[in-house]
Amino acid sequence: MAATALHTKIRVGRPQASNLSRTKRWIITLAATAVSTYTLDAVATTAGVLLAASHLLHGLDHTLVLLFLAGTYVAWWAGLHVNLKVNWALLEDTGTSTNVLSKAAYDLVKLKTRSARARRIAAAIGYVGTELAKETPYYAGAFGAALLSDSVSSNDALIFLGGANLGAAVYEYGLARGIRAFLHRRDARAYAAFETDWVPGEYLADYYSTVEPDERRTIAFFVDAMRDATPGEPVLFFGVGPTLHHVFLAAEKASEIHLGDYLPANLREIERWLRRDPKAHNWRPFVRHTLECEGLDGPAAEEITWREEITRARITQLLEVDLRRADPLGGGNAHQYGTVISAYCADSATDDKVMWATYMRRIAGLVRPGGTLLTAALRRSRGYLVGGKTFPSPDVDENDMRAVLEPCFGRENLTVEVCDLAGRGSHGYASIILARAHRRPNGKSGTVALEHTFQANQAR
Ligand SMILES: C[S@@+](CC[C@H](N)C(=O)[O-])C[C@H]1O[C@@H](n2cnc3c(N)ncnc32)[C@H](O)[C@@H]1O
Fold it and tell me: Domains of the chain (ranges plus CATH)?
């Protein structure tokens, strides 16, 4: 069972870089709470005093001052709201918080239930409760001063409170950004790196010993989509890895096949297959599945060999590519293709959704007007295992895919499918996103209805 799990693309949680003991988590949380409380107080009080002393709002009548105060509460709440999300991520990832009550509530609920929603609500109640309690001294101070001193009016007190709220809002935003940056850096460290940790043989052994359900679906989808591709033109495979399982389906249509990947080691693995090295990976089960998807019932051995031979003949270029470059093909190469196929590449190259979107746009930019993009991505995955090491995945779903491809291709030219694999023999890996898109001949994106197919998971 464990071995099978390793042989599928495993959906894993965010890697836990933190091996902190329970005591250390509490110590860190207590220290962070103290620092955070004092800093918030200092920032909010300073902002309140500065605003009141500046006389900027001095001439305003009472109603306008009240409106201003209401506005500052909205700003404060917005900052708090952002911080609640980040505090939740911090608790889930590290078991620590910048708010000791939030952690206490979170831990307590975690003992009682496995519900993530319950943990999230408990953490939020602890956090907001503390923030509201912290407001009390401000009210006491402001209105106490207004009552006891003739030189402080109720408007001054309200302006001070408004300033303190604005200071608190800025502080909450700043804290959220800081924690987010920390979590991001931590995640980046926790993932394996392609440059040092990727072993082509491990990837082939873990994923391509047999035709797994996700690949059955991906190949079937690509075969179907290739029926609409323009024949007699070069086809580009972007981020092909050490694999050829998607390449066979393009061999009959393509005039040439160009294979691009980031790692020379992956391209060397492909070279082994091209020169018929006996140690090269055996792709024949995948060729068989491709031919079956094309409509051949039980293809004969010669038919499989024939497709392998055509494929060898069509592959004319192996390219080193890099999505981190604005021109991913390199050397200022602005070449565009009639068909670009990129499976599990952009979503493997980063754990960051914004970077993923940039990478997807770069791949889409390689499609010429009137051309086709076929792509696949892991759905809602934080990472996948290769040789026991976790490589990144940016947790994207079909909405993210549509959001990034629609502006490039137009709604009417885009098909996005979700293949839910749970309950279909795939162990630990939940679902994939498959997409095909056609660029309009004039290169502009269209506006009509989105063709959109969801394959609901019957087994759930
Ligand atoms: C999970 S593999 C997918 C390989 C193949 N397409 C498949 O379906 O099995 C991800 C690929 O992305 C490539 N990759 C990683 N970083 C990249 C980058 N910055 N630019 C282009 N490709 C990259 C890796 O070398 C690797 O081959």
Answer: 22-190 (no CATH), 195-455 (3.40.50.150)
